[in-house]
User: What shape does this take?
Amino acid sequence: MEFAFYLPTKVHFGQGKVKKVGKIAKKYGEKALVVTGRTSARKLGFLELIEKELKKEGVKFSFFEKIEPNPSIDTVKKGAEFFKQERCDMIIALGGGSSLDAAKVIGIMVKNPAPLSSYFGKNKVKEEIPPLIAIPTTSGTGSEVTPYAVITDTENDHVKKVIADPHLFPKEALLDPELTITLPPSVTSDTGIDALSHAVESYLSKKSFPLSQTIALEAIRIIGIYLPRAVKRPDDLEARTYLMYASLLAGMVIAQTGATILHTMGYPLTSNFNIPHGRVNGILLPSFWEKSFSGEPEKFSKVVASLLEGIEDSQAKNPVKSALFIKEFLHKAGLPKNPNINIEEEELSRFAHEIIKNKGKIAVS
Ligand SMILES: [Fe+2]
Assistant: This one.
């Protein structure tokens, strides 16, 4: 057996951990750029909380509250200019996958002068980015422990592009489940299904290895129990805690193996129809399942046995039946029954070409 498991991010997990932000930030300099979305972080009082903790430790800060869902190059460019103008030393990223990924790309643009497109792909970032402290407010992206960022290429074809580089691992991650208590069921569902697809794809990936597989199956098991519970009862702190833990585990393993074709297939649907990233993965998962099952029947059955406690062995080993069980689970986990996407045949063929073009490239986040 041989493998490499690289995770340089220091993880702080538990209720109330967000309050450590001041003490942690102090280690990395005098002034932080706090990168976040346009409304919810302020509305929910998270920015006020961070402001208080930073002030307590004498860390100066500026807010950049402009990150949109599926962030664009235009926005991160503005963020990088603002970082320089405000003479910041570090970035604190607060929010879902969009804010965390945008903060990473802002970091690249601050330190790496070439056009951003030259960093698309794997291992192309030359200079270290400013220290990044990641504080996720959803349980799904895993971006707080991955070397990946996804950005919409608004300067060219409006397609989502992946940057994968070890420079993008945050220095520290604060995972506080209390921050996810106010998430509405639809966001809990979309992000939870994203975490599930990270764990499933990592497990099925040809790049997986015994350690990553063990962690991935544990993430799948936990999501099987707690995602439907958190969708049903948003204030269930135990469910929120375990979901955040599972999302962390799933992030840890896609950081090692990358995702698979399921993520690649989802990107055009998110870019062109604005369907949330995790929901797209959920919509595609049952068909992906049925079509790919025969390639690795044992691995597929193990996934379904972990996700659905008590499923009979014969059902777990049947591609059609297990796909139906997964579909049923996804609906219990909040996935809409009739997603209703109207795609013209011509568009479908364009997407298929795009997916084939990206096949084999790393697909994440
Ligand atoms: Fe994802």
User: Anything to note?
Assistant: Residues 262 and 316 are 20 Å apart (CA to CA).
